[in-house]
Fold:
Amino acid sequence: ERLRDLPFLDLGHTKLDLHRSLRNGFPEVIYGEGKTPEQVGEIFLRMGEHANILATRVSPEMAEHVRALCPKAVYNALGRTLTLVRGEIAYTEGEIAIVTAGTSDLPVAEEARETCRMLGSRAFVVSDVGVAGIHRLLDKLADIRRARVIIVAAGMEGALASVIGGLVSQPIIAVPTSVGYGAAFAGLAALLGMLTSCASGVTVVNIDNGFGAACAACKINNLVSTASNDQRYGMNA
Structure:
């Protein structure tokens, strides 16, 4: 009864959660897959005059329709994201590293990078440093270690998350990708490998879920930044 009148905008096909950022820290994000271009276009138009908007799993046809309505929207074809920046993004201190085992994992990495950007965390991608050529990872290890949180996207057997987990002290969020030959089972082998990692402290999200990994990484980054600022200004309890 108390929650019934919290504000949301009913579009018939969609109910926009206008206060999600007050509860969860991040605004509602549009999941494009399964929606029509017209539905996503209407959501873009109705999400608020000053709201920054992120849509994931957006097809080229959907992006074309929305950009006809909102010409300032930007489509990332590789990551399948569509973004509209209406107000300045306030970035949190610290960076998030997004590391891929192979070039084929870049679509998931790009979804994560765009999500981090729209949620206020700076992120950079280190690509194609999988365990088949471990020297490539070691060459980039100093860059990866400067990040506060590390997202690792890998298909095949998903071993890269365990390897990085044995080399760094930061939180690791592993993303199994659907990259691999038959016995990879469209990411299931990587998912199970990451879940059974012998490296302690590796957290795993669902297959190809770059968006979910980025949300978790940004929440960690925000908590660290808040704690750092509290210490800096003498606000410790």
Notes: Residues 210-232 form the longest helix (23 residues). The first strand starts at residue 8 and ends at 10.
